[in-house]
Amino acid sequence: MQDTVSTRQVVYNDGVVRAFSIATMVWSAVAMLVGVIVATQLSFWQANLGIEWTSFGRLRPLHTNAAIFAFVGNMMFAGIYHSTQRLLKTRLASDALSWAHFWLYQLIIVAAAVTLPLGLTQSKEYAELIWPIDLLVVVTWVIFAVNYFWTLARRNEKNLYVAIWFYIATIITIAVLYIVNNLQIPTSLTHSYSIFTGVQDALVQWWYGHNAVAFFLTTPILGIMYYYLPKAANRPVYSYRLSVVHFWSLIFLYIWAGPHHLLYTALPDWAQTVGMIFSIMLWAPSWGGMLNGLLTLRGAWHKFTTDPVIKFFIVAVTFYGMSTFEGPLLSIKSVSALGHYTDWIIGHVHSGVLGWNGFMAAGMLYWMVPRLWGTKLHSVKLADTHFWISTFGILLYVVSMWVSGISQGLYLRALDVDGFLLYPDFIESLIASKFLYHMRLIGGLAYLTGFCLMIGNLWITIKQGKPVDGTVEVTGVTKDSSNFFSLMKGAPVVYSVLLIGLSCVMFFVGLLGTAIIVAALIVVTISAILYAKRAKTDHAWHDLVEGHPMAFTVLVLVAILIGGMVEIIPTVMTSQQIPGQMAEVTALQNEDGVYRFMQEPYSPLEVEGRDIYVREGCYTCHSQMVRPFRHETLRYGEFSRASEFIYDTPFQWGSKRTGPDLHRVGGRYPNQW
Beta strand 471-475 with 191-194: parallel, antiparallel or unpaired? Predict the structure, then answer.
């Protein structure tokens, strides 16, 4: 097959980019406004208005979905479509698919905004949408994937730039995560049950939940970082080699870390330990990416006082580093014992979404919108004001939640000299947090105010300009003529798969086996280096993989599937039919003081009660998981066992305690809280 040479002008499809950019601005205001409302409800209960569809339990999932999928999702698609066309020097493959993607995605957001306040939910964090909307999400994602990979096939650049690697990983991994976590059996048009139950459901959910953060809020934004930071700084990426290490280590390690959300729960201890170990290992690639971003900007620091885009990017990448330091820290078991179920987790999540994603979105929009409408930014001073107000807001928010979370953990675990609860009522921890909740509300209002200034500034910028589609002159079309299967059998791919496989085996062998495998890894690595030196080519092995999107995608799929399969398959295949299980929250004490658990399916009335619990979003404030700590068993009763949840679908372990744990309710504490 011969390459053909021609010269022609390519006109980019920037219309859909403009649409996603405007949607980003609209949904950012909605998401943050709902966030301010739920923060107000936590400070002043009267803000619930006494109406069921405006209660905290129903609005909090609306806030999280709006912030993640409406705000960051639209920003992500705008950045991906805008940068990809320019990196590949080609127009999006299909205008029809691009616009179908845009309108279906907005339909999904509107459907979520209607159903969640109505109590139509699966009650699984970041996966609350009911099954008909889930199907629409899958259809929309397939349209996006087809359009994207079709565009890759039509590219006018042989090798794929760093940002494209992260976009490919996002598309592949989110598809796997979303489909597996939303396997369910519909019982009506608006109701369904997950095929997983209890411990299995919890593991699959947080395998999805953690990696939704990883591959929806991190990898695509890193791709955007790798494109827009060099553009804003007018400098190349600091280190290509660091980009390679950052990418492959990040996507391989991230997928294993989900169980760190379930430390000290009824999840098997081996899964908790694996999740913690891989979470700690994430420090290296995450900080490698942060340093690559900051060092890319090192020649543009003098612009900090004059260019708002540089301001936002510097702070965004700094928040990325801070969040990716805090995440592994919180995954250490002793730290999790203190911080889990407290406001510390809330502060951590918001530093990532608002600090990292929000500031990257603002920087990208300030850079991109004037170019999309062929004009200059209306007011640099207004953008600077936005920066300082929102920076103050997010810092106040995060610090108040740090202090609140740590104080809550200390209050709830405090014991007197006799080993009994120093603060037996749950309400003490809430009283201590009241002032900090007010501070969080002020911080959220400041952050929202800053984004309202941005929306006004950009809207005036749009009105004073006219839509402009980017163009590029393309000379020569480089197309891959090598055989895909021969590439997959080549040394680079074989070495990559072997290294990944051996790394996984290390977790299932003893010390001697680990030493042998490490020696094998060294031999394989040396062999790869010697092979590369003897190869008569001017390209590094990774250059060859970059030039073949299909091979690259297959390697990404292998890297992300290994961790999921190793963690999920043993848990799902293990039978939960253990003597002495129970479905009800019932524990009977025999003459010897030993608890005996009753195994009984839920009655129809109990199933109805669980459905009401799910509908009202009770899991947003309450947990149903008593951890094996003395202060928890004194306050809540016997610690929870895996066998107690075999009929629970969906599981309701929760991730925050604004109110007390409800696994063993019944006269254990007063209701003042």
Answer: unpaired
Q: Phi first, then psi: what are they for 197, rounded to 5°?
A: -130, 155
Counting DSSP H helices and E strands in the chain, the numbers are: 24, 6
Share of the chain above pLDDT 70, in %: 84
Residue 289's SS3 state is helix
Mean of all residue pLDDT scores within the chain: 87
471, 9 in Cβ contact below 8 A? yes
Residue 123 Ramachandran class (φ > 0 left, ψ -120 to 50 alpha, else beta): left
In sequence order, what are the residues at sequence separation of 6 or more whose Cβ sits closer than 8 angstroms to the Cβ of residue 84? 92, 148, 151, 163, 164, 167
Check whether 577 has a pLDDT greater than 50: no
The closest alpha carbon to 406, from 344, 490, 328, belongs to 344
CA–CA gap between residue 557 and residue 432 (Å, rounded): 47
Report CA-CA distances (Å) from 613 to 1, 169, 623: 63, 36, 12
Cα–Cα dist 469/373, whole Å: 8
Which of 30-34, 133-137, 233-237, 667-671 shows the lowest per-residue confidence on average (mean pLDDT)? Answer: 667-671
**Helix 73-88 crosses helix 131-153 at what angle (to 10 degrees)?**
10
Tell me the C-alpha distance between 666 and 668, whole Å: 6
- Let me know: does 555 contact 545? Beta carbons within 8 Å: yes
Tokens 């209660």 appear where? 55
Tell which residue, 117, 225, 253, has the closest CA to residue 166.
225
**Number of other residues whose CB lies within 10 A of the CB of residue 110:** 11
Please say whether the beta carbons of 333 and 264 come within 8 A. Answer: yes
**Token pair listed for 359:** 């500031």
Residue 268: closest CA among 664, 624, 576, 656:
576
* Four-CA torsion 236, 241, 245, 250, nearest 10 degrees: 10
For residues 581 and 643, is the Cβ–Cβ distance under 8 A?
Answer: yes
Residue 81 has what pLDDT?
Answer: 98
- What residue type is 19 in one-letter code? A
DSSP letter (8 states) at residue 433: H
Q: Are the CB atoms for 661 and 625 separated by under 8 Å? A: yes
Does the global pTM surpass 0.85?
Answer: yes
pLDDT band at 578 (very low <50, low <70, confident <90, very high): very low
Contact 93/150 with Cβ under 8 angstroms?
A: yes
pLDDT for the residue 153: 92
Question: Which tokens hold the place of 182?
Answer: 């939303």
User: Which segments of 66-197 does DSSP mark as H helices, in order?
Assistant: 73-88, 95-115, 131-153, 162-181
Quick check: 192 pLDDT over 50? yes
Closest by CA position to 69, among listed 114, 122, 24: 24
- Is residue 542 within 8 A of residue 153, CB to CB? The reply is no
d(CA 287, CA 273): 22
Give the separation between CA 544 and CA 351, rounded to whole angstroms.
Answer: 38
| Contacts of residue 670, Cβ cutoff 8 Å, sequence gap at least 6 | 425, 427
Is 389:396 a contact under the CB 8 Å cutoff?
A: no
Distance CA 276, CA 260 (A): 5
DSSP letters, 7-51, are EEEEE---HHHHHHHHHHHHHHHHHHHHHHHHHHHHH-GGGGTT-
Residue 595, phi then psi, degrees to nearest 5: -75, 135
- Is the pLDDT confidence value at 1 over 50? no
Tokens describing residue 122: 């699966």
DSSP 169-196: HHHHHHHHHHHHHT-EEEEETTEEEES-
Cα separation, 166 vs 146, whole angstroms: 17
DSSP H stretches of helix in 182-282: 198-216, 219-233, 240-254, 269-281
